[in-house]
Amino acid sequence: MKIALINENSQAAKNAVIFNALKKVVEPKGFEVVNYGMYSADDKAQLTYVQNGILAATLLNSGAADYVITGCGTGEGAMLALNSFPGVICGHVATPLDAYTFAQINDGNAISIPFALGFGWGGDLNLEYIFEKLFCEPSGQGYPRERAVPEQRNKKILDGVRAAAFKDFCEILKSLDRDLVKGAFAGEKFSELFFASCKDEKIAATVKELMK
User: Fold this and answer.
1) pLDDT tens across 132-171, in order?
2) What backbone phi and psi angles, to 5 degrees, belong to 131?
């Protein structure tokens, strides 16, 4: 599994702490972590939480990433931004219990963490515990287990509703404000990381066109 980390501008200073906590937990499982930044509050490319959504959706829909870890001050804005796009199911995760139940019941592919709330002494440990519970076992198995069948059925129903509600992802990107989209792809290492991992030629071509 390839896991992408994305930070927006208000919480960019925590990027290294989040990145290290995530790697510590998932690399022993054989997962790869790819850091798309922001890497610091002083980065030239300043991502908003709305641009987090654009970037995350591009990574997930293109196959450049299998999972996205992101967030903002409260975690709410980034969650809403990510869920505005097809191919993304993002949960708001503040505790290890949130992480486990979201993974097992909702079987999503992204989480948004409130990096400004309760992130004091021991904040790095809470992140580790969140990541441990998020990836401790295959997702979508249901919780409690006796609820697995109806929960899995509801997930399929939700997937069908979302498929009907959204249009083609490339059309969505092209319909958005050009500068907003270009800003989402302006990260220092975006081109290097994305085009090496993108599995969808149509999305890759659209991204190149919009970056001009």
Assistant:
1) 999 999 999 999 999 999 999 999 999 999 999 999 999 9
2) -65, -35
Q: Which two tokens stand for residue 34?
A: 């790819």
User: Which residue type is seen at 54?
Assistant: I
Task: Name the residue among 52, 88, 86, 89 with its Cα closest to residue 70.
Answer: 52
Helices 123-134 and 15-26 sit at what angle, rounded to 10 degrees? 40
E strands, the chain, are 2-5, 32-35, 67-72, 90-92, 110-114
Element (H, E) at 210: helix 201-211
Cis bond before residue 38 (omega within 30° of 0) = yes
User: What is this structure's pTM?
Assistant: 0.96
Q: State the alpha helices, DSSP H only, in 46-115.
A: 49-62, 76-82, 96-101
Residue 137, Cα to own-chain centre: how many angstroms? 19
How far apart are alpha carbons 112 and 128 in whole angstroms? 15
